[in-house]
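Thread: "does anyone have the structure for this chain?"

Original post by V.I.:
We have the sequence but no experimental structure in hand. Need at least a predicted one for the grant figures.
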Amino acid sequence: MAEIKVERSHDQHLLEPKEDTSSSYTRRSLAGNRPRLASLDIFRGLTVALMILVDDAGGDWPMIAHAPWNGCNLADFVMPFFLFIVGVSIALSLKRISNKFEACKKVGFRTCKLLFWGLLLQGGFSHAPDELTYGVDVTMMRFCGILQRIALSYLVVALVEIFTKDSHEENLSTGRFSIFKSYYWHWIVAASVLVIYLATLYGTYVPDWEFVVYDKDSVLYGKILSVSCGVRGKLNPPCNAVGYVDRQVLGINHMYHHPAWRRSKACTDDSPYEGAIRQDAPSWCRAPFEPEGILSSISAILSTIIGVHFGHIILHLKGHSARLKHWISTGLVLLALGLTLHFTHCEKHLAFWSNSK
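Reply from O.Q.:
Generated one for you, tokens below.
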């Protein structure tokens, strides 16, 4: 690991306002004098392009669409990328706000905006955009979504950053692991999130449950189907704790009614493409499931914390080589952890860490 330096590097100057120059356009926002980190903007743009690609072409190329359940396809990287970008932005933006009240006000306002647009865009208000048909049945409104997940992660991690700022600025020192020691509260929160997630995932008892088929194209429309579970610690589609928590807290009518698991072999003969659900398919193939639900959104906080850590490296380490050393070593540790989970037969729970299905 590289040592932490308090001196400002050339790149840190790019994060601070400067007098107007001919090249300042690439570093400033169009709205004013706020500086921009070009590499972060480029990564954000590439992630948006990737999102458009997998959304538009995923139906024709299922290998890039969301994995039906276990697995990780190209589309499954989009949400972690966005959360990582949010984390880096938190580290850079809140560094310039010294007043905690002002910082909390800014974070609260942005969280409310994300929640508002999330509910508006994914809550069910737009039934047929091409026909300009709008309106929502509040009894069937979808509460969770992509922007809501980002809002939760942003709120939690930003508040940790704000209220621990004094401690890690005072304790900033040199040493191989100084960056981890200075921001230890972030890692305590990360460990707590991990423990809560795994304890709930493996310790929650999932009883039998039932649901009403709301698909008007189905011959079973309006009928009540049941799913047999009565188990604990299962990670399969019908009997996992993630779905159970969402059904209990959100209500099954407020969950996503077209989950990716409908493309699995158990549900359709056209798998991995979308297709008609088989007549002899298990009942859960027709059930709702929330890919951006409560428990999986709590685990998504970890992706944002990793982004904040990488943002801190930009702020505190001098020079590209020092940053790259730290980023690569951190990435290798996370990769080794992932491979350990995979080869110790714990990889199936990673399906729930997928931030979008």
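V.I.: this helps a lot. The beta strands are 126-128, 133-134, 205-206, 209-212, 224-227, 231-232.
O.Q.: and Residues 8 and 318 are 7 Å apart (CA to CA).
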